[in-house]
Amino acid sequence: MNLSKGYLLVLVVVFAYLSLQLVRPFFQYVLAAILLAFILFPLQRRLEDRASPTIAAFALVVLAVVGFIVPFVVVAVAIAEDVAAMLQQLDPEMLQIAAIEEQIAEETGTQVNITEQLSGSAEQIGSIVLEQTTAWFSTLTHALVGFGLMLFLLYYLLKDGANLMAWLRDVTPLPADVQDDLYGELAEVMWAVLAGHVLIAIIQGVIAGLGLFAAGVPNAAFWTFVMVILALIPLIGAPIVWIPAVIYLFLINRPVAAIALAVYSAVVVGVSDDYLRPIVVDRYAQINPAVIILGVLGGIYAYGVMGLFFGPVIIGAFIAIVSVVDEQYNQLEGESGTI
Length: 339
Fold this sequence. Notes:
The protein has 339 residues and is mostly helical. The protein has a domain at 172-329. The protein is 82% helix and 0% strand. The chain has 13 helices and no strands. α3 crosses α9 (220-231) and α8 runs antiparallel to α9 (220-231). The chain is globular. The relative contact order is 0.09.
């Protein structure tokens, strides 16, 4: 490697690092834009046969707002209302504060006043809330800016997606057939996660949630959201929620509703998993449940909410890349690095 090539490589690394620093504050929104662009790009290609890329991309951004983002916001508001209702329903007398104080006195010989302590803590919390008002405003502003950035990126990823892929293929030092194999494997992994696991989890959670609503289980919107998240994790799923809901209905003397919910959840939700998952997953690459579990749990810690989607994709993509390398490595030995 001569000095000129080394200098260029250093420039690439430096500016790649600086660019990453620019992306990091809005990383979640960038990932969301990439995810939506991947889902909508096939529609973009079809619409471009009837309209200009600009009009097609704008129409799909509107579709994303109406079909994905607005429902997400509505569900988030409903969940927040359920959580607030759950907190308001807490009865202080149920906490048996007096009994707790008496038990502490018997065990330790020390008299405590939990109510007084909580009052003092409430005053401190109030002071903290006032001090954090500016931080909350900053968070809201950041969210609005990130939301606008996400829509902006989505528009250009759709409008110029074909040019972006052509540029990536041009700068990638791999033969065309190897790139076809690699990108095909990555696309299959992405669709396997989205259609075979995320979509099925949403359908299962919603179906089970309808049973909770029909049975009159309190805070059904919140528990539906929990079931969707749990359904993403193999071997766990919605039963962790609907089984306690059935027990709850029995405890409050509603045996008919409890039995109906149990039958509905076991039959309808179970059938949806048994029939929908094979139909959807068989169309794409099959991913081992261990990959899904590790990807979902690790993805949440590494990438936040978007890690639910990208965690399994990243691990699946790694496996796909290793597979392509294994199949194509001997071919690459004689290549000069040009396409």
